[in-house]
């Protein structure tokens, strides 16, 4: 929900298209809607600028659908992350028009918000990976950014084992207003990119790597101790957090331009 949604309610009430009882019901659920098993935070889009996102792990399909429906009813698309294949198939049956990304394990239910924002701004985020094996985390980041209405440029498999691959795209990289760098192994790509650009870089360590990688700990520590300034680090395999941060950065740049 956003200010335009509330204005629309008030306009409909004034025009007699919305009765008092219905309007009170909408306003009553503004802080949150209690579904017993979940407290849906409808106020989040007003407070944070972006709606609540549904974390799919640990929830059954009926719970996911009910939360998504409530989010949709308040004028927001519902992004669902960390879905397994069974839940994806169940969502497709209920929502044939859902935007599904199996690599990212995400689903977007409701109107795609990109037409609302990305067509009106030239701001762009970039999601970059060191290797092809990092793509699932990168796709989660990209889908999150796009679910919040911004364009995402994807640049994959440009890790430090072959820096010529990265430098071949230097002009493209310099066009991004914020960059998420996703890498496993030793996580070195984040420092390299941080030393090339003047925009914020969000480093995402992944659990990709051999035994001494410790399921992403080596990449996490490498990114935390990197020498390049302007690089912030999120949790292991947390593409969602990176995509969200990209969106926050772009939204603030957008606001500064007005």
UniProtKB/TrEMBL annotation:
Keywords annotated in UniProt: Membrane, Transmembrane, Transmembrane helix
Keyword field contains Transmembrane: yes
Keyword Transmembrane helix assigned: yes
InterPro entries: P2CMN_synthase_LarB (IPR039476), PurE_dom (IPR000031)
Membrane-spanning residues: 173-197, 217-250
Coiled-coil residues: none
Pfam families assigned to the protein according to its UniProt record, in alphabetical order: AIRC (PF00731)
One record GO biological process: 'de novo' IMP biosynthetic process
PurE domain residues: 126-256
Gene Ontology MF annotations: hydrolase activity
Alphabetical list of PANTHER family matching this protein: PHOSPHORIBOSYLAMINOIMIDAZOLE CARBOXYLASE-RELATED, SLL1489 PROTEIN
Annotated NCBIfam families: LarB
Name by which UniProt lists this protein: 1-(5-phosphoribosyl)-5-amino-4-imidazole-carboxylate carboxylase
Species the sequence originates in: candidate division LCP-89 bacterium B3_LCP
């Amino acid at each position: 929900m956003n200010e335009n949604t509330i204005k629309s309610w008030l306009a409909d009430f004034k025009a007699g298209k919305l009765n008092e009882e219905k309007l009170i019901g909408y306003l009553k659920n503004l802080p949150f809607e209690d579904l017993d098993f979940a407290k849906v935070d409808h106020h989040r889009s007003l407070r944070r600028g972006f709606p609540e996102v549904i974390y799919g792990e640990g929830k059954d399909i009926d719970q996911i659908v009910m939360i998504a429906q409530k989010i949709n009813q308040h004028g927001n698309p519902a992004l669902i992350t960390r879905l397994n294949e069974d839940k994806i198939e169940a969502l497709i049956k209920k929502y044939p028009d859902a935007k599904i990304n199996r690599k990212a394990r995400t689903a977007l239910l409701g109107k795609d918000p990109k037409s609302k924002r990305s067509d009106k701004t030239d701001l762009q985020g970039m999601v970059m990976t060191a290797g092809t094996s990092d793509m699932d985390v990168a796709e989660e980041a990209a889908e999150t950014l796009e679910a919040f209405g911004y364009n995402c440029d994807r640049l994959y498999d440009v890790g430090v084992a072959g820096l010529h691959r990265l430098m071949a795209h230097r002009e493209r990289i310099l066009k991004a207003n914020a960059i998420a760098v996703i890498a496993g192994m030793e996580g070195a790509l984040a420092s390299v990119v941080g030393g090339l650009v003047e925009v914020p870089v969000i480093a995402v360590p992944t659990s990709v790597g051999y035994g001494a990688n410790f399921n992403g700990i080596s990449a996490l520590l490498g990114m935390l101790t990197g020498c390049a300034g302007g690089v912030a680090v999120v949790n292991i395999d947390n593409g969602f957090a990176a995509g969200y941060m990209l969106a926050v950065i772009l939204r603030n740049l957008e606001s500064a331009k007005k």
